[in-house]
């Protein structure tokens, strides 16, 4: 009897409290800032192109071999709008095989890839888990916007900054004038007898 009343009292007490659970998938709880979801590729606004050069380092280091990439010559480098000679042409990650280890992010020297907050990519087909370049870039842009992402090495990797640095170095070099002509062979700068 007492146990029954205690149970009833507990039910009544909890009836009017705010629930701590969420009705997924209608309700989504926010993820933490440090949350590691699927990898995503980042976008360099200053050159209007991806940071990824397709160097393949992440592809080689991925422990589950779930990535593939292909690079090509960057037309924006020829135009002078980018400092990247090569740029990514195709990129694919099989997210069914990705173990979210973050190694691809750690080995990338171009600030081109991040573990985004994306974790909901369920689909009805096996091929649905294959994320192509467009999907990876869309995920990256969303991640950049929601976290106010900044690159680790802007001087090297942000086209606008790298090009400005290169232009400043060229201007300083031309202001310094041509290099002094070398002294004649066999001479330390003093006159030589004929
Ligand atoms: S994400 Fe980074 S490491 Fe991977 S191919 Fe692109 S530039 Fe290279
Ligand atoms: S997080 Fe790990 S498993 Fe997933 S793509 Fe990157 S290196 Fe491969």
What does this entry look like structurally?
There is one protein chain. This protein has 194 residues and is α+β, with helices and mostly antiparallel strands. The protein has a domain at 31-159: Alpha-Beta Plaits. The chain has seven helices and seven strands. A three-stranded antiparallel beta sheet has the order 4-5-7. A two-stranded antiparallel ribbon has the order 1-6. The chain has a two-stranded antiparallel sheet with strand order 2-3. A hairpin with a 4-residue loop joins strand 2 and strand 3. The chain is elongated and about 105 Å long. It starts with a helix and ends in a 19-residue tail after the last helix. Residues 186-194 have low confidence and may be disordered. Bound molecules: iron/sulfur cluster (2 copies). One iron/sulfur cluster is lined by residues 39, 62-64, 66-67, 93, 98-104.
Gap from first CA to last CA: 126 Å
Percent of residues in helices comes to 25-40%
The CATH class of the domain at 31-159: Alpha Beta
The appropriate CATH architecture of the domain at 31-159 is 2-Layer Sandwich
Give the DSSP E fraction (strand runs of 2 or more residues). 5-15%
Order of the strands making up the biggest sheet: 4-5-7
Instruction: Tell me, rounded to a whole number, the average pLDDT.
Output: 90
Small-molecule components bound: iron/sulfur cluster
Question: Any idea of the CATH topology of the domain at 31-159?
Answer: Alpha-Beta Plaits
What is Rg? 28 Å
H-E string:
HEEEHEHEHEEHHH
Sequence stretches where pLDDT stays below 50 over 5 or more residues: 186-194
Please count the beta strands (DSSP E, at least 2 residues each).
7
Assembly level: single chain
Shape: elongated
Counting DSSP H or I runs of 4 or more residues, the number of helices is 7
Main beta-sheet strand count, sense and barrel state = 3 strands, antiparallel
| Structural classification | alpha+beta
């Amino acid at each position: 009897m007492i146990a029954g009343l205690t149970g009833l009292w507990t039910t009544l007490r909890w009836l009017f409290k705010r629930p701590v659970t969420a009705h997924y998938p209608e309700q989504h709880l926010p993820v933490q800032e440090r949350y590691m979801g699927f990898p995503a590729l980042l976008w360099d606004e200053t050159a209007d192109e991806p940071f990824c050069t397709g160097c393949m380092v992440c592809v080689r280091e991925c422990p589950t071999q779930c990535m593939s990439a292909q690079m090509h010559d960057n037309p924006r480098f020829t135009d002078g709008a980018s400092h990247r000679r090569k740029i990514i042409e195709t990129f694919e990650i099989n997210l069914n095989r990705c173990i979210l280890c973050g190694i691809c992010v750690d080995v990338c020297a171009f600030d081109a890839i991040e573990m985004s907050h994306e974790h909901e990519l369920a689909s009805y087909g096996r091929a649905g888990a294959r994320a192509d370049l467009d999907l990876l870039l869309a995920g990256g842009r969303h991640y950049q916007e929601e976290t106010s992402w900044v690159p680790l090495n802007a001087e090297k990797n942000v086209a606008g900054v790298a090009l400005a640095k290169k232009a400043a170095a060229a201007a300083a070099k031309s202001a310094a004038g041509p290099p002094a002509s070398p002294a004649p062979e066999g001479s330390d700068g003093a006159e030589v007898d004929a």
